[in-house]
Amino acid sequence: MATEKMIKALNNQLFREFQSEYIYISMEAYFASQNLDGFANFFNVQAQEERAHAYKIFNYIHRIGGKVELQSIPQPKIDFESPKEVIQLALEHEKFITKSIHDILALAIEEKDYTTSAFLQWYINEQAEEEESMEKILNKIKLLKEDPAGILMLDSELAKRVFVPIPTE
Ligand SMILES: [Fe+2]
Ligand SMILES: [Fe+2]
Q1: Distance from residue 35's CA to the centre of ligand 2 (Å)
Q2: Residue 143 sits in which domain range?
Q3: Low-confidence residues in the chain, pLDDT < 50
Q4: What is the domain-level CATH number for residue 52?
Q5: 67/85 Cα distance (integer angstroms)
Q6: Is 126 annotated as a binding residue?
Q7: For residue 169, is it within any domain?
Q8: Per UniProt, where does Fe cation bind (predicted)?
Q9: Is 101:127 a contact under the CB 8 Å cutoff?
Q10: Relative to the alpha carbon of 132, which ligand is closest?
Q11: 130 lies in a domain?
C-alpha cells in the first residue's frame, strides 16, 4: 500500500513530467523560429513523450487509489543563444529528472513499497535512454563547432524522429 508521502512524491513527479513537456515545447518554438524544422520536430516528439510519461503516472496514482493533484507550471525559459545551448540545457534537465526518479525509487524501497518500485523501474530505463540520446546530439554539435552546413545536416537527421506511443496503462 502506497503511503500519503509516496502519493505526494508521485504527484510531484507527475508535475515534473508535465513541466518537461512545457520546457520542450519552448525549445521546439525556438527551433521553429530559427527555421530548424528538424530540431523543432525532435523537441515536438520529446514533448509528446513527456506527456505520455506524465499520463503513465496519472494512471498509476489512480490505480493505487491515490488522488491526482495538479500543480501550476512556471513559465519555461523562452530565449536561447544557440542550438548548442538548448541541447545542453535539455541534457541537464534530463539529468535532473533522472535524479528525481532515483529519489522516489529510494523512498519506495525505504517504505518497502515494492509495487511502486516495480512501476518506477520503467522510468529508470527510460531516463538512461533519454540522457544517452541527448548526449549523442550534444556530442555531434560539439564536433560540428556550430558549422552551419553541419547543423543543417543534423537538422535533416532530427526531422526523421517520429513519436512512438508509450503504453500508459
Ligand atoms: Fe520524462
Ligand atoms: Fe525526459
Answers
A1: 24
A2: 4-71+80-158
A3: none
A4: 1.20.1260.10
A5: 38
A6: no
A7: no
A8: 17, 50, 53, 94, 127
A9: yes
A10: 2
A11: yes
